[in-house]
Amino acid sequence: MKITEVRLGLISVPLRVPFKTALRSVSSVEDVIVEIHTDTGAVGYGEAPPTGVITGDTTGAIIGAIRDHIAKTIVGRDVDEFEDLMIALNGCIQKNTSAKAAVDMALWDLYGQLYKIPVYKLMGGAKKSIVTDITISVNDPEEMVRDALNAIDRGYDCLKVKVGKEPEKDIARLSAIRAAVPKETCIRIDANQGWTPKEAVRILNGMQEKGLDIEFVEQPVKAHDFDGLKYVTERSYVPVLADESVFSPQDALTIMQMGAADLVNIKLMKCGGLYNALKIASAAEVYGVECMIGCMLEAKISVNAAVHLACAKQIITRVDLDGPVLCSEDPILGGAVFNEKDITVSDEPGLGIKGIEPGKIRYI
Ligand SMILES: C[C@H](N)C(=O)N[C@@H](CCC(=O)O)C(=O)O
Ligand SMILES: [Mg+2]
Q1: Between 300-312 and 97-114, two packed helices, what is the crossing angle to 10 degrees?
Q2: Residues whose CB is under 5 A from ligand 2 (ion)?
Q3: For the chain, which terminus, N or C, has the lower number of CB atoms within 10 Å?
Q4: pTM of the full predicted structure?
Q5: Per-residue pLDDT tens for 244-302?
Q6: Calpha distance 132→109 (Å, rounded)
């Protein structure tokens, strides 16, 4: 199976409600789609969101990295030289993890199709379904309570609540939500780097004293501040999960060796795809650090690839793969079935993606 062409397109999918974090506010998913064509007619699919505030990757940068570096490296090569392809993909350009992730998943898709096996089984997995949380955007407490109750009505029992914007309001936000939702609702929070280390300890221990029962906090402090993260981890009663601090397997190792976080969030767009995500999962297994599988604002092609990983690795004990259910429509054909919180992996060879609804992709 020889790679003949890398085709790129753009999709635009409106969100049900605007997505607001301490870092950004957006109202639609605007992603780059990658199709890798082969001489057998098989096509591998990938997707990359331009999450500039987190990864530094813009739409133009994703397109440029794929066209000017990655495509030139992989076209003409055989999918069966999988390890060589992965090393070439990772070595042909620095950083650009979103572009690499989109191509990495399209290659896994083709490799699974070549050997007629779904990717999660190729990775040794046997689990067929997982359960995701859903994100509540940061707003005034009243609006957040409305969004939380709407999520409960849709059947979600785990909320990931965004905080970190106007930190003085965060305890009030969480108190209002905790008072409104059923007692057994799991609540995790994500500050998206919005607090200083001292502020984080004060807010988190304040939440603990009020009995708000927070499962964990995601990325309380700036991404580069590993010492600050460790400071919070050592002093907070609420467990700490490293998100923006962990891009590469090396970052994950450093965080684990320092004891700077209790948990790690693996995202394909931060680490460059499934090949590197597996390395983070292996490091986490060695250190006994449980992982969450997360996503950016992504539609179903790339989140579907993360579903395969989550079904394969037992060290992934938390799931934040709500990209598709935050969207008001799903233009992607095939792949995992997203029935609100319940996600069922596809048993089709590769990643199981069949294509994009006609008229919903603009080829470039
Ligand atoms: C969408 C997901 N639940 C999420 O919150 N992901 C990121 C932010 C993604 C973005 O800004 O696109 C996170 O910080 O965990
Ligand atoms: Mg996060």
Answers
A1: 70
A2: 190, 218, 243
A3: C
A4: 0.98
A5: 999 999 999 999 999 999 999 999 999 999 999 999 999 999 999 999 999 999 999 99
A6: 23
Q: Residue 114: in which H helix or E strand, if any?
A: helix 97-114
335 ligand 1 Cβ < 6 A: no
Whether 267 is catalytic: yes
* Best CA proximity match to 221, nearest among 202, 193, 200: 193
Query: How many angstroms separate the CA atoms of 158 and 52, rounded?
Result: 27
Contact 189, 167 (CB under 8 A): no
Distance (Å) from CA 304 to ligand 2 centroid: 19
Mutate to test the pocket of ligand 1, among 21, 156, 219, 343 (most ligand atoms within 8 A of CB): 21
Going by C-alpha positions, the residue among 219, 22, 21, 54 that lies closest to residue 137 is 21
**207-247 pLDDT tens trace:** 999 999 999 999 999 999 999 999 999 999 999 999 999 99
Longest distance between any two alpha carbons in the chain, whole Å: 62
Distance CA 7, CA 3 (A): 11
Token digits of residue 349: 């060879």
DSSP track, 304-364: HHHHHHHHH-TTEEEEE--HHHHBS---EEES-EEETTEEE---SSBT-EEEE-TTS-EE-
* Spatial contact of 309 and 283, defined as CB atoms under 8 Å apart: no
Q: How far is the CA of 79 from the centre of ligand 1 (A)?
A: 32
The Cα 289–Cα 274 span in angstroms is: 19
Q: How far apart are CA 132 and CA 72, in angstroms?
A: 37
Type of residue at 300 = K
Residue 12 sits at φ, ψ, to 5 deg, of: -135, 120
Q: Which one, of 362, 353, 357, 350, lies nearest residue 108 by Cα? A: 350
Kindly list the distances between the CA atom of residue 255 and the CA atoms of 175, 224, 271, in Å, as whole numbers in the listed order: 31, 11, 15
User: Are 106 and 46 contacting, i.e. CB atoms less than 8 angstroms apart?
Assistant: yes
Residue 344 burial by Cβ neighbours in a 10 Å radius (0-12, 13-18, 19+): middle
